[in-house]
Structure formats: structure tokens, C-alpha cells
Amino acid sequence: GDPSGGRGISMDFHKPDGCGHPLSDLKEWVAVQSDSVQPDLRKEVIRMMVLAADRLAALGATVNSVNLGSHQLPNGQDLPLPPVILGELGKDPQNPTVCFYGHVDVQPAKKEDGWKTDPYTLTEINGNLYGRGATDNKGPVLAWINAVETFRALKLVVNFKFVIEGMEEAGSLGLEKLLEEENQCFFSDVDYIVISDNVWLSNKKPALTYGSRGNACFLVEVECGGKDLHSGTFGGIIHEPLTDLIALLDSLVDPTGHIQIPGIYDSVAALTEEERKLYESIEFDLEEHKKNSGVKKFLYGTKEEILLHLWRYPSLSIHGIEGAFHEPGIKTVIPSKVIGKFSIRQVPHMDLSVVKRQVRHLEGVFSRRNSPNKLKVSMPLGAKPWLADVNDPLYKAARRAIKKVFGEDPDFIRDGSTVPVARMFQTITQKSVIMFPIGAADDGEHSQNEKISRHNYIEGTKVFAAFFLEISKLHRHLHETSNMEIKN
Amino acid sequence: GDPSGGRGISMDFHKPDGCGHPLSDLKEWVAVQSDSVQPDLRKEVIRMMVLAADRLAALGATVNSVNLGSHQLPNGQDLPLPPVILGELGKDPQNPTVCFYGHVDVQPAKKEDGWKTDPYTLTEINGNLYGRGATDNKGPVLAWINAVETFRALKLVVNFKFVIEGMEEAGSLGLEKLLEEENQCFFSDVDYIVISDNVWLSNKKPALTYGSRGNACFLVEVECGGKDLHSGTFGGIIHEPLTDLIALLDSLVDPTGHIQIPGIYDSVAALTEEERKLYESIEFDLEEHKKNSGVKKFLYGTKEEILLHLWRYPSLSIHGIEGAFHEPGIKTVIPSKVIGKFSIRQVPHMDLSVVKRQVRHLEGVFSRRNSPNKLKVSMPLGAKPWLADVNDPLYKAARRAIKKVFGEDPDFIRDGSTVPVARMFQTITQKSVIMFPIGAADDGEHSQNEKISRHNYIEGTKVFAAFFLEISKLHRHLHETSNMEIKN
Hints:
homodimer; alpha+beta; Aminopeptidase; six-stranded mixed β-sheet; four-stranded antiparallel β-sheet; 14 helices; 20 strands; about 20% strand; hydrolase (chains A, B)
């Protein structure tokens, strides 16, 4: 069954530069200023989509560039949305169908922001390939395409699909709607979805990401009346809205970081022994992370506790207050309407609507103050957590591929932040989703001097190709097993 | 010894318009855009100072326009300061010397801000004289000068001094230094200081002001490290500075408005029976005040409690937080350095340095949190309260004058805000200071449609003249009594 004849994957990365060479591909793509954030660069994003579509077509894929229309900027200007590319390569119903999601738009970048090299000229220094989009996400997209190209040269036992967008850095406008529309069509025969739009937890050790926290954002508004008042003329005789709000916010979390909202931990999944073991082996430099944050001391002392509290326990952060005095200096004002902002990073199996109801705990705190002011608590934004099953064939195959190419088992990691795209694909398509990064922790996505190392880029291509092999083996095995089960 | 021969004061305000007529004087002064806030109108302030100096010279006063040099604007521009006018009229050591402080600069005003009439054209509508500076402070300054002019036509038994400035609305730059320099010279023979730069508590009933609260402003800074952090990447594993700050601010004041800083009430002067009586008779429309504030309910239900808590008890107001997210919407940031701002309106006999020490109570609250963050509490601004003795001859004379002219006793009132100029004069010169308003509560200082009623302007002139008579009588009486005591 091994289509490579047990030889594993070998690719020649030393052929001279030319069309289809991985480094010249990346150089060409990085040179396109496909910044989706700045409106005047939108035409470059659209040009980038054409390049990406051509690259897939060159692979032999059927390519459909779906027009998503336009969107309106805050200033009223109408701006065209770049198309989303839906690509398809292979349609054998015997083979597993792996769908890859990636994006070819980038964050803004200017040399004068503090780049050592021109951000749009891919430059190799000490084995690192510097350039905007090198790791987020042009490099991984090309690594995948190159892996498919190589794999195709062997006997093709995997069907490939591609979803490539150009608005990820600007909120993936239109993507969710497209996924919903295509769920019964494009996605109907998809078995697995791979996203490679994040990085490892360490600089050296590969990782697979199987979950992310959600985010429930809350506004707490307290209002006393029509206008801001002078603290000389009204201080001491009124219930000040900001004093009320401070008390409400102070009721949310204790000095140890424990959330004080009754019942909030009730639905948090219990930590299994298997899960705890996953954490033990993870490569994570606590001191390095502390240094990066600038913080003197974390709430917990061990790597395991830190990661558990970052990934699989909820946290509550207060972000600020709108409507109060926020400038330097002193203004002796009693603000009449203040809005506190906080968010809860929630985790499986917390339910957003339950969390929303639990936060109404603030109404009780408020009513005990006997304040005549008006309280309004709302949740304008609620993103759910995402969690995949690490025992899914998708994760098994990726793990084996990593072991084969990198010689070690990956870390199984989560993301403390919210990864809307993974959650979106999983929720809409109900397929298995994996986040399969090839970039390292120090790649600097969104930062100056973004890079991917030449090693990661090339080994990443290999690991994707190895993954195709493993998933095809596992899939066939599963298929045969389930056929046997049916026969039995 | 009544120099008016027991006839009381009578003035003819019905002579035709002309030089020296009270209304044409005020019309001329209001027409000068002596706005000290806007740099490009500074020349108008300086022109106004010349007008005021000329007016005093026309009285027969010796006038010294003291040059205060210049000050620098935030943009680096050097702007000349208007001079302070020191005037002197009469030098008989047998007579009391009354020094009047007033200012002839004004707040900015534009027709399009919502004025019904041109702000720089004094316009009479239904008995009210509308115009910028009509009540704050050109009207009262002219009422005083006109009273002196009238009184001078009689037998002069009071020596007058004048301090007229042109930077009051811009922070009285240079005034304090001048007072200190002149303390042993110009102020050496001053017995009483009168300021008429505020308004009554009601629209109809005259008032004398004998105190104001101080203001101690505090900054509470909590910092965790170098940069703002992402709540997904660090939420749940660090001691968030804003959570610490919220807890610190929440420890300051309880829902009833009671300040929770230990010892803060220890030095507050006990309420005497005599004082409580003063409050009973005060004319104050609680419902009107509530309506003006927009607040549904005050912390206290009676007029007396409200005024006590506004004037003679301290209050604590939280104004806002610098460094946190303050814009509309949500930003899932953990701010690394946040600065809470609050102030305590303190009252006699609270001592600023004691208050500052007591606020270090926050350090204890912080240390109980076991937070590794850095706390810094500072008091960048501390203005002391001001309190005069209502049994001082100055107040007795003013009270008698009001009774004579208005036919009723004045309210003895304080100001919940800080009145730096009264405190400054009293602290530096150690003389008796009175705030002797002639404007009504609805005059709208600093607002659109500022006015003084024709009635208040003219009766104000009369009451000042009557006051000269009373203070001369009381002073002579005191002088004779003290001479007798020395002889005994």
C-alpha cells in the first residue's frame, strides 16, 4: 500500500531557480503587497489571488475563483472583495479528500516600521527567509502546494481541495457565508480539513494544535443622568456611576485570577489523566515566555499549570472603561455614563448562553448597592472555543508524518486565543479539522522582520507530503475496517 | 459717627447715559473680548487692563500696572501676560483699608455656541443684562468701583485698595508670586479683603460665602512590565494590572459615599449647633438642584444633609483610568500600565500631608493581593480648603449691609468646589477674606447666555456702598474698644 514504495518522501530542493522552485515561488509571492488591511492595496490582493489561482491551475487543479462582491468602508467607500479560490485536484471516491485552507493576504508592513530588510523582498539571512507573509501565511500555503506537486509525481492516492482566501487579516469577510453555501456542494465529499496558519509553541519542536479558547465580550454600562458633573458641585451627594462600575468590575475576579462569577467553572471539562500527560512532554520555555511578556511573575510556577490555565481553563480580563476621563493629568469630573469592558476566554464545555446568563450575577451585586443609577450588561460578541479530537485519524497521520520527517513526536498544543477559522470550518462542515503549523514560535507573525526558516519551509513541505501518505494509509485502513464491520 | 448722617445710601441710577453711568460702563467693558484662554485674544485682555486702570485713575486712585512678563504656550509660543493692576485710594491710618480683588478677563464665547444675543454686546432682556463677563466678573468689579465712586462723594472714611487681574480664567498665572512679593508692601496696611467672584445659592436670596473645600488629587499607577499584552496569550496566567487597580479603587468609597480610607474623617471639624442653625435657614431648592444634575436620587434626603455633605464633609470621586482601553467597541488587550485618577475634596481641619499619608492605605490593600506588579501612588495636586470666621467684622458688616439693602439676612454658604483665590489671599496675607457675591444662582458663569440682572447689578452697587459704611463703623468701634483695652 505505500505508494512511494517504502522509500519515504524525497524531494530535490537543490535544482536551479526556475518556475516551480519553492524558494523562487515564495520570493514571487512575498513581492506582492497583498495587504488586505489598507484599501489602496486591495488591487494587489486581487493580483495575488490571480497568482495563487494560476499556481493551482499549474498543478492540474480545477480552479473556481468565487466572486464575493464588495464591502463598504467606514468612510462609505465601496471596495471589491478579493475572490475566494476553491480548487480541486483528484476525485477518486476510493481516496480520502483532504481540504487545505490558507490565505495569501498579509498584514501591513513598511521598511520604516523597523524592518532590517525590505518586507516585500524575500531575503535569506543565517538560514531565515525574511519577508511579510513568509510564515503568515504564504510560506505554508506554498509548502502545501509544493508538497501536493511532489506527491502527485508519485501515485496519487489522495484527493485534494483548496480554499484560499485574501481577506484573513481583515476579518475573513464573506468566508463564513461561502462555507455555508458550499457545505452541501464543495465540502460534501471532504473528509479532512487542514489549516496551517499558526506556529509551533517552541522554536525547534514541531506541534499540532487541537483547540482554542472562545471569547465572550461584555459591556457593563452604568449611567446616572444627562451630563458629566463637577466633583466640587456634586461630589459627596450622588451615587457616582464610576464608583458603581468599579465595584461591579471588582466582583469579577480575585487576586489569584480565579473568576468570581458563581457557576462559571461548572461546565469546564474535567482534566483527564491522558490530557495531563500531553502537557508534561510539551516543550515550552516558561522563562522565555515570561521574558517576552515583561511580567515579573506568573500566577503559576510550573509549565503544566501555565499551559492549563492558558488553554483549557477560562480566564477573565478587564480591558478598560469608556466614558471616564482617560487622558494624562487630572480632570475633576464625575462621568455620567461609563462602560466597562471585559471578556471571558471560555473553554469546552462552557456554553455561551449560559455564560451570558451567569454574568447577570452583576445585576445582583449592583442591586445590593442600592444605587439609583441604571445598569445595562450586554454581550455584543461571543466566539465559541474550538476543540478537536487528538485521536482522530487526522491527528494520527500528522503525528506519524512529523515523527518521520523531524524524528520526534509533536507537541499537542492549544491556543489561548480564539481561532475563528478552525471553529468556523468545524462548526459548518462538521468535518475533522487540524491546525498543522510548520512555522516556529519566533517567526514574528504580524511583527517586523517576519520570517520562516529555510529549514522549516522545506521540512514543512516534506512533512505535508509525508502526511498525505499517512492519511491515505490510515483512511484505507479505516475504510477496510468499516467495510469489514459492515460485512460482519 | 455715621458719615452719611444716618440717611443711608442713595444713588441716582436714572441719570441719562454718559461717562461713568453704571450701564454704559458695563456695556463698554463687555464689548472688549478679553478672553484670556485663547492666545490670539491676548491683546484684547491687555486693552481691557488699560480700560480698568483708566477707570480706577478716574476715581482718583493711584494705579500701578505691574508687568508680569510672559508665559510659554504648550506649542512653545511666548505670550505676554496682562499686567496686574494694584490700585490705592485713600491712606488715612485712622480708616480701615479694604482691598478688593476682581478680574476683567472672561471665558471664551461665540454667538454660534448657542447665545441668544451677541456675547460681546450687553443686551437687556426682561430685566437681565446678557453678555460675556456680565456676572463673571466685570459686572461685580464695576459695581464695586461705582460704589466706591458714590461713597467717595460722601465723607471718605475707608481706604480702598484694588487688585485687578486679567488671567483668572487661565489659572491666575503669576498672581500668587505677586501677592507674596507685595505681602510686606501693598498688603501691609490692608485690613480686609473682599472677593466678589461667585454667585448666590439661590436666584433671589443674597448670600455670603465663608468657605470652600480643598482638592487633593491622586494618581494610582499599577504596572506589570514593558508592553500591553494579548488576553488570549496571557489571560489567566498573569496578575493583570487593571484588575489590581480596580480592586484598589474599589477600596476607596462604599455605596453610601462614605470614604473607606482609615482615619480620613478624624480631623473633620465637628458640626456645632450654631453651624447647624446656619444650614436650616439657607434657601436651596433641592429638587431644582437634582433636576439640574440629571440624577434620579441624591445620597441624602434633606436640604441640610445635602449641603453639609457638599460643603463641610469630604468626598471622594473617581475620575477615570489612563492607559486602559477607552474607545468604543472591544479590544482584547491586557494593558500593562494603568493609572487611576481620584480626588478627595477635603475640609477643615484635614491636613493635606496627613491625607496623603492616609491614602497610602492603598499600599496595604495592594500588598494583601500578593501581586508582583509595581504600585505608585502620588498626589500631584493638593489645594487646601478655605474657611473664614463668620463672626469676623467683615462678615458682620456685609450681613448688615445686605439686611439694609435687600431687607433680609443673607445665607451663609460655602462652595463644594475649590476657590483657590480666596485661599491664596488668606494664606499669603493672613488677612480676613470674604466672598461677597452679587450675582444670582442662575447667572450662568462660563455658560452660554451669561447674565446679571439689572436689579442685582444696581442693588449690588448699593450693597457694596452700604458695606463700606458698616465696615467703617465696626472698624472704628473695634479700634476704640481695643484702645480702651490697652488703656485698662
